[in-house]
Amino acid sequence: MSLLADDIKKIAHLARVGINDENMAAYAHDLSNLLGLMTQMGELDTEGVKPMAHPLDLEQRLRPDTIIETNQREKFQTLTPHTEKGLYLVPKVID
Question: Which of 22, 31, 34 is nearest to 4 (CA)?
Answer without folding.
Answer: 31
